[in-house]
Specification:
6-stranded mixed beta sheet, Rossmann fold, alpha+beta, 11 helices, single chain, globular, Jelly Rolls
């Protein structure tokens, strides 16, 4: 089917601001299902990493509109402040799209990361013409729970700083530089701090905002500096109007089904799982609950639409690719087909499994009816004295393990759900470089006699004590292959405040995984107190990391006796 592309179409919002969009549509006259993607990363870059190729979709009889959000690139409307205007602007843009002569009046929203979030925000605003959404790797909350940029109130420092450098600072430098020479100088300064990683180590963290502002230069509005969001996040001082925006607890307002795409190694995995469960169990419409679907691949952030089979150190095989799901249609084609079904006149209820997961170890796609998987059996795997890991708890007199956590020499980041500079590779990475560190405890099973399939949420319960008033705990679940490689699967971090020396029970949410630990492999758990620069460093002094300039070592104790049995809890499905 021949297509037509319209560039920079103006779309006027309720307050008079003009946002601009590119439109990809069939050349033949008609009224077609219409998709909308609202991006903060330039509509010119729409074909990568968006799962849906707008040219393909238009050739299949679907209109695709790609819009720059308020204050970004070709769109007007004043200064951009992350997420602030996406509820109202999303509502207005959906209704504008539905009213166009090329639209059949039914609109779908899609996109990855920020664009996925604009889909959720518009769906919560509930424009009458919205028929479905397909968010890929979407955050769930930026306000009360801080779930997007923190885990258990521990700031995802690598994500926060890297995202600011790549998505805010560079754009502001280009926007406000005073001529070509100034632009070149400021971009060079920015490149230096990115490549050297020097800002990751700067203390206190709040001072990083000042360093970035010096590179960026003054914004167009002194009352709304370009890096205001970064400073507000680091210090947990988002402005009051921002706190009034609803999101995570309002899925009952979403009246349309969602096709949710997640990745085992995505920094937003836990949020996508939460989205699905809230949609399935909220008080929204029955149709939206029943038609909501989820796909979980092996992907890291932003990689769901790529043809690659590798993530980190692991090649998951041809069928793992986002372009060849289950050796059939690709993710983008799947989304287009799903939208055509949902947005057609008299759309029918979709059949098929609610959940499709990629199972590592055996490298296959597996269909499930719900999440968490009902047949999963929660099984405790206990940390044992001497470094063992077993389904049997330790004895009453088993000794505890100790290590010294020195935030001046933190355990370095090795893999995981990262969004950081290229020197830090995301995904499943051999943990060999950190296994012999003095601040890492290693617990390992004997070689498994039979396969153990684990699919679902993973948690850890630690019985611990520290010599300081506050500290952090990190836990990683790993697969050890017969060659000795220790490959991380999922992990978590928790912040603890307690009287020095007091034994405290700490719960660590490790999000989830899908894997078969094969016979001959071993299950391994790593316990530490840092994962830097992925997470901010706890100074062990009781000060908040964003104000701390002094860091002190802490003596850490992990208990594994019969009454204080530290363990990881795995959802065993087979």
């Amino acid at each position: 089917m021949d297509i037509v592309i319209e560039r920079d179409r103006p779309i006027v919002m309720r307050d008079g601001a003009t946002l601009r969009a590119d439109i990809f549509r069939p050349a033949a006259d008609g009224r077609y299902p219409t998709l909308l993607q609202r991006t903060a990363y330039s509509k010119e870059a729409v074909r990568n990493p968006a799962p849906i190729d707008p040219i393909y979709a238009a050739s299949e009889g679907v209109v695709v509109i790609v819009q720059d959000v308020r204050g970004k690139f070709t769109s007007d409307g004043g200064s951009w402040y992350m997420f602030r205007d996406e509820f109202d602007d999303g509502y207005d843009s959906v209704e504008w799209a539905a009213a166009q002569p090329f639209s059949n009046g039914h609109v779908g929203l899609y996109g990855i990361s920020y664009m996925a979030n604009t889909s959720w925000q518009a769906a919560i605003a509930a424009p009458p013409s919205l028929g479905a959404i397909a968010p890929t790797q979407a955050p769930i909350d930026y306000v009360d729970d801080w779930k997007w940029l923190t885990r258990d109130d521990v700031l995802k420092w690598g994500l926060t700083l890297n995202w600011t450098l790549s998505s805010i600072a560079e754009a502001e430098v280009r926007k406000h530089a005073a001529g070509a020479d100034d632009l070149r100088t400021r971009l060079e300064q920015l490149a230096e701090v990115v490549d050297s990683g020097s800002l990751f180590w700067k203390t206190p963290l709040v001072g990083v905002a000042d360093a970035l502002q010096e590179i960026v230069g003054p914004g167009s509005d002194a009352s709304d500096p370009p890096l205001a969001f970064f400073r507000d996040v680091v210090t947990r001082t988002l402005p009051k109007p921002w706190h009034g925006l609803p999101f995570a607890r309002t899925h009952e307002r979403v009246r349309v089904p969602a096709l949710i795409t997640a990745g085992w190694y995505d920094v937003i995995l836990g949020h996508d799982l939460d989205h699905f469960q809230r949609m399935r169990r909220s008080a929204g419409t029955e149709e939206a609950r029943e038609q909501t679907r989820m796909v979980i691949g092996h992907w890291a952030h932003g990689a769901a639409s790529l043809l690659q089979t590798w993530t980190g150190d692991v090649d998951f095989g041809r069928r793992s690719s986002g372009g060849s799901i289950d050796m059939g249609i690709g993710l983008g084609v799947m989304q287009v087909d799903w939208f055509k079904q949902q947005l057609g006149d008299g759309a029918a209820v979709g059949d098929g499994p609610r959940v499709k997961v990629f199972v590592q170890g055996v490298n296959r796609w597996q269909d499930e009816d719900d999440w968490p998987i009902p047949r999963a059996k929660s099984t405790n795997w206990y940390l044992r004295a001497g470094g063992g890991l077993s389904t049997d708890a330790g004895g009453a007199d088993d000794p505890y393990a100790t290590f010294v956590f020195d935030p001046r020499d933190p355990c370095p980041t090795v893999g995981g759900d990262l969004v950081k500079p290229p020197m830090y590779r995301p995904g499943p990475i051999d943990q060999g470089p950190i296994l012999d560190r003095r601040d890492v405890l290693v617990y390992t099973t004997e070689p498994l006699a039979h396969d153990v399939e684990v699919i679902g949420p993973v948690t850890a319960t630690l019985h611990v004590a520290t010599s300081g008033p506050s500290t952090d705990w990190t836990v990683k679940l790993c697969d050890v292959d017969p060659d000795g490689r220790t490959i991380n699967l999922c992990d978590g971090v928790a912040r603890m405040t307690a009287a020095p020396g007091a034994v405290t029970e700490v719960h660590v949410d490790m999000w989830a995984t899908g894997v078969v630990f094969q016979a001959g492999h071993r299950i391994r758990v790593l316990v530490s107190s840092s994962d830097f620069p992925r997470y901010e460093r706890n100074p062990n002094t009781g000060q908040t990391p964003w104000e701390a300039a002094v860091f002190e070592p802490a003596l850490q104790r992990v208990f594994c006796d019969g009454t204080r049995a530290s363990c990881v809890v795995l959802p065993v499905t087979g």
